[in-house]
Design a protein that fits this description.
This protein is mainly beta and 118 residues long. It is 0% helix and 54% strand. Strands 2, 4, 5, 6, 9, 10 and 11 form a 7-stranded mixed β-sheet that branches. Strands 1-3-8-7 form a 4-stranded antiparallel β-sheet, with no helix packed on it.
Length: 118
């Protein structure tokens, strides 16, 4: 099954850290731009960060710039989102997205819940 699986979400206190993982099954990230999006109830899904294969160039939304880091491990076919200094407004379902830079085909993961609360 072609699939993206996110993990690493959970409950964390404000100021804490969390690392999300996105693992590809059935395809490789080698020719895909991989991004993290998030969505809170009543809000539109928004881009958080992106990483471009094979250059490892990264882009960040202002919301996470300076606090979030996107990275990859090609051997594990995994992309990570390290989130530091978390704020309550970071609470959302975080989704992994992979877009082929050859065909434009897009895969979405099922999402992992991140809750930042004291």
């Amino acid at each position: 099954q072609v699939q993206l699986v996110e993990s690493g979400g959970g409950l964390v206190q404000p100021g804490g850290s969390l690392r999300l993982s996105c693992v590809a099954s059935g395809f490789a990230f080698s020719t895909y731009v991989v991004s993290w999006y998030r969505q809170s109830p009543g809000k539109e899904r928004e881009l958080v960060a992106a990483i471009i294969n094979p250059s490892d160039n990264t882009n960040y939304a202002d919301s996470g710039k300076g606090r979030f880091t996107i990275s990859r491990d090609n051997a594990k076919n995994t992309v990570y989102l390290q989130m530091n200094s978390l704020k309550p407004e970071d609470t959302a379902v975080y989704y992994c997205n992979a877009r082929s830079w050859i065909t434009g085909f897009v895969y979405w993961g099922q999402g992992t819940q991140v809750t930042v609360s004291s």
